[in-house]
From TrEMBL:
This is Germin-like protein. The lineage of its organism: Eukaryota, Viridiplantae, Streptophyta, Embryophyta, Tracheophyta. The keyword Signal applies. Keywords: Apoplast, Disulfide bond, Glycoprotein, Manganese, Metal-binding, Secreted, Signal. May play a role in plant defense. Probably has no oxalate oxidase activity even if the active site is conserved. Residues 1-27 form the signal peptide. It is found in: Secreted, Extracellular space, Apoplast. Mn(2+) binds at residues 115, 117, 122, 161. It comes from Carya illinoinensis. Belongs to the germin family.
Amino acid sequence: MKIPSSSHVHMLPYLVMLLLLPLLSFSADPDPLQDFCVADQSASSISVNGFPCKPASNVTSDDFFFDGLTKVGDTSNIFGSNVTGGNVLTFPALNTLGISMNRVDFAPGGLNPPHTHPRATESGVVIEGQVLVGFVTTGNVYHYKVLTAGQMFVIPRGLAHFQKNVGVGKAFIITAFNSQLPGAVVLPFTLFGSTPSIPDDVLTRAFQVEEQVVESIKSKFSS
């Protein structure tokens, strides 16, 4: 019988780790360690990565159902769109489960402005209307397509993307995420509406425009 050399034995743990790495990257959130952990959002003094669990004795069937995405969002704003979140903040039963959904409503011509989700990949389906969906890769390549009802899209995690209603009437889409709280960095508000504000000389240099242009844009997003 051939005895494995010591070098092969020493390599075994590294090979096992290489095999496990893809499995560790399937989910954006950690795997749960129990059947459920309905978020106890009243425990505001406790700071954890997520929320503490409501005692199982206090959990009811209603905790596992959510009708928030049935409601049409108010699109009377500067972008003509509205995002209704179905995440752990509005649907506490999603706590530790690594999933969430949004409903996005669009007025005619409405835009869900360029943004990123730092903690999740996004997939979505058009329910009504015609929607232009686009994203830009880290290689600065713009991918886009106009979708109609029933067609799906996917946005890789962390990439800047947008959706715009290009049809004649209203539109809405349902999106899903592999995180209970994917987060959203909405670029116009982040760059021009932060508190405190980003210095003008940073933005004028970044966008190669005059200071008055930056001030004009900031005035539209100041709280």
